[in-house]
């Protein structure tokens, strides 16, 4: 079908393919957007004058006053529909809006004007007005109510979004693709929950520029504010129900446009920067951006939610609880905050509170994430049937949520349903092949099924993706590495990758993560005599000494030192004996409390640390007492302390200065 030239009575000309003809309208495909034009508004098509056909009376159970044609709806609503021009630091954007009060009250989407330094409202008759204030706004509901200084303006009639029936016809008036005052129609599909909010789903096509415009019923009443479309879906379009908007409509501005731009706009720029940093794995930077966004706008719920999520990923549960409780005080119905709060309580082992909070989140917004978190808590309580029920609900709500499949696979494993466990875990990997935890779970499952080659394969994959691997599990896998697919070359590549990332983390000041990566690089090695294994050990030992010097990660670092003593030949090769002595001296220096903690944590290595401390302070009697303890608990480690005691003056003089 060739493009037609459509001349409107307004004098405007449109070129597009006519995809549908009715008695009183045509539907035109314009640059991929479906637009409806009524014949009474068209002068000619391809130069031929247009004459509308008579319309047969419509049979309807609605009162006569509600039975008006789409063209009548358009003629009534178009004067109250406005174009929103937002002047941003990055350029100019355009959206739609509609007037709800003749005294200059305009409703649009928050995202249309977010960050704008100047906003202009343009009416159908060409008049333009600067926005002078913001009456109210909600980033969560994507609503912003603007104020312009004018009276006696045309207004749109508001309807009731609670009384909609699936299949009923709806209309959209707006400015898609920069085309002002076009109308499209479709059907109401239902009310859906997305991003923790209720939305009207409908099939009338919308495009960029429609955002903020009115969604109408066939009587011309506004039932929603068009908001967004799912790019991957066909005619999956959404609007904020008008009943959710009512409470934001007023007459007097809450803040000036300047405040809105400098406070809210700046906070949102920081929020966006924080998310970008997070997705780029610059976690500290992300936290700083989000904290600054909250400082500028203390009512910024989304920033609280994002910050709580990041804190949870870092295991900082007390901070999750703090920011989530602040968000809930601002909005008790903020589902993400309840979900984060419940997950944090679960991380702290306070499972009753965890279930209570996550159930609140589910009651507000029954989404896949909340059900998956609830299933995780049930699994920790050994309530496996309830866990499975919650996780199956999660995957039914979101068939693409990989974490729910991963958790469901683990519950299947715990119930002894091995094949189901493998299938669900593999599905999680298929959906997100760049996440390490499902590979780790699969490695564990295969190991306990005696399939050691697969266990090694998936453990290595998990580690290469940055997944934290339990040291004991790595040790269990070590005997099965030789003769498997894991070649020395591959080990070397993976070790080099780990160590490069460890150095990057160290430069950023994240010693804990640098230590974890270097230690995992060492545990990855199948041959302790290989050069790359020695390099990894040396790095791990060096960073371990830095951590102990800071009194950080005492237990884990000390365990690594204890492990090092069992490989004395590697310690000697790395020049590590002096380093162990040095870190022991720094760690225990100045406080016997540290010695007690070390002994409580690690026994033989604790007594070794204490022995070093006593040697440094020339208390050889106490040093020999520690040596006796080591001989009793771990005789294989006693020779090292004995050498330190005997050779101290000549062998390690620089450590005693």
Write a structural description.
Helix content is 50%, strand content 18%. The chain contains 26 helices and 19 strands. The chain has a six-stranded antiparallel sheet, with no helix packed on it. It has a six-stranded antiparallel β-barrel with strand order 7-8-9-12-11-10. A six-stranded antiparallel beta barrel has the order 13-14-15-18-17-16. Helix 17 packs parallel to helix 19. The protein is elongated.
Q: How would a crystallographer describe the biggest sheet?
A: 6 strands, antiparallel
Structural class: alpha+beta
Q: Count the helices. How many? A: 26
Low-confidence runs (pLDDT<50, min 5 residues)? 55-65, 483-489, 565-569, 574-603, 649-657
Secondary structure: number of strands: 19
Mean pLDDT: 77
How would you sum up the global shape?
Answer: elongated
Gyration radius, in Å:
33 Å
Strand content: 15-25%
Strand order of the largest sheet: 4-3-2-1-5-6
Multimeric status of the protein: single chain
Percent of residues in helical segments? 40-55%
Report, as a whole number of angstroms, the end-to-end distance: 91 Å
Distinctive features:
elongated, six-stranded antiparallel barrel, six-stranded antiparallel beta sheet, 657 residues, 18% strand, alpha+beta
């Amino acid at each position: 079908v060739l493009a037609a030239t459509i001349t409107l009575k307004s004098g405007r000309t449109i070129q597009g393919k006519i995809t549908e003809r009715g008695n009183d309208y045509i539907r035109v495909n314009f640059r991929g957007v479906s637009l409806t034009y009524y014949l009474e508004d068209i002068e000619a098509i391809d130069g031929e004058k247009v004459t509308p056909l008579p319309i047969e009376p419509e049979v309807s159970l609605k009162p006569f006053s509600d039975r008006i044609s789409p063209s009548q709806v358009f003629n009534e609503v178009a004067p109250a529909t406005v174009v929103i021009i937002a002047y941003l630091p990055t350029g100019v954007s355009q959206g739609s809006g509609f007037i709800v009060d003749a005294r200059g009250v305009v409703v649009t989407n928050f995202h249309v004007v977010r960050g704008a330094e100047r906003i202009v409202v343009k009416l159908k008759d060409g008049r333009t007005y600067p926005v002078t204030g913001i009456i109210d706004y909600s980033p969560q509901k994507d609503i912003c109510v603007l104020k312009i200084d004018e009276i006696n303006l045309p207004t749109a009639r508001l309807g009731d979004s609670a009384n909609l029936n699936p299949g009923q016809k709806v209309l959209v008036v707006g400015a898609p693709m920069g085309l002002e005052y076009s109308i499209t129609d479709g059907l109401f599909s239902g009310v859906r929950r997305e991003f923790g909010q209720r939305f009207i789903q409908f099939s009338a096509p919308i495009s960029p520029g429609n955002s903020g415009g009115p969604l109408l019923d066939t009587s011309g009443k506004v039932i929603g504010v068009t908001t967004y479309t799912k790019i991957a879906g066909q005619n999956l379009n959404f609007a904020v129900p008008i009943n959710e908007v009512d409470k934001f409509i007023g007459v007097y501005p809450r803040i000036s446009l300047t405040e809105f731009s400098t406070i809210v706009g700046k906070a949102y720029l920081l929020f966006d920067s924080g998310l970008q940093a997070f997705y780029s794995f610059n976690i500290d930077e992300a936290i700083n951006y989000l904290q600054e966004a909250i400082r500028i706008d203390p009512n910024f719920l989304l920033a609280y939610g994002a910050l709580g999520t990041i804190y949870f990923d870092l295991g900082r549960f007390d901070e999750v609880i703090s920011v989530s409780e602040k968000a809930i005080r601002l909005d008790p119905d903020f589902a993400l905050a309840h979900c984060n709060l419940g997950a944090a309580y679960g991380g702290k082992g306070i499972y009753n509170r965890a279930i209570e909070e996550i159930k609140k989140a589910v009651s507000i917004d029954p989404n896949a994430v909340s059900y998956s978190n609830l299933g995780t808590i049930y699994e920790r309580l050994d309530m496996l049937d309830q866990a499975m029920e919650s996780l199956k609900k999660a995957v039914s709500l979101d068939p693409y949520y990989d974490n729910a499949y991963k958790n469901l696979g683990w519950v299947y494993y715990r119930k002894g349903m091995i094949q189901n466990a493998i299938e669900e875990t593999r599905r999680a990997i298929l959906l997100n092949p760049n996440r390490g935890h499902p590979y780790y779970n699969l490695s564990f499952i295969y190991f306990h099924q005696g399939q050691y080659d697969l266990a090694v394969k998936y453990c290595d994959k998990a580690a290469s993706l940055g997944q934290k691997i339990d040291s004991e599990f790595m040790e269990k896998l070590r005997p099965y590495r030789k003769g498997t697919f894991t070649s020395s070359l591959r080990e070397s590549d993976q070790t080099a990758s780990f160590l490069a990332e460890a150095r990057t983390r160290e430069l950023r000041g994240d010693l804990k993560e640098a230590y974890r990566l270097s230690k995992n690089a060492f545990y990855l090695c199948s041959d302790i005599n290989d050069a790359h294994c020695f390099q990894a050990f040396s790095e791990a030992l060096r960073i371990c000494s830095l951590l102990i010097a800071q009194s950080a990660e005492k237990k884990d670092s000390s365990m690594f030192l204890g492990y090092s003593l069992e490989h004395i030949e590697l310690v000697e090769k790395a020049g590590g004996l002096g380093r162990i002595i040095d870190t022991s001296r720094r760690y225990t220096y100045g406080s016997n409390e540290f010695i007690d903690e070390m002994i409580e944590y690690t026994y033989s290595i604790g007594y070794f640390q204490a022995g070093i401390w006593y040697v440094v302070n020339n208390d050889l009697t106490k040093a020999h007492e520690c040596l006796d303890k080591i001989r009793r608990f771990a005789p294989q480690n006693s020779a090292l302390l004995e050498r330190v005691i005997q050779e101290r003056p000549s062998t390690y003089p620089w450590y005693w200065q």
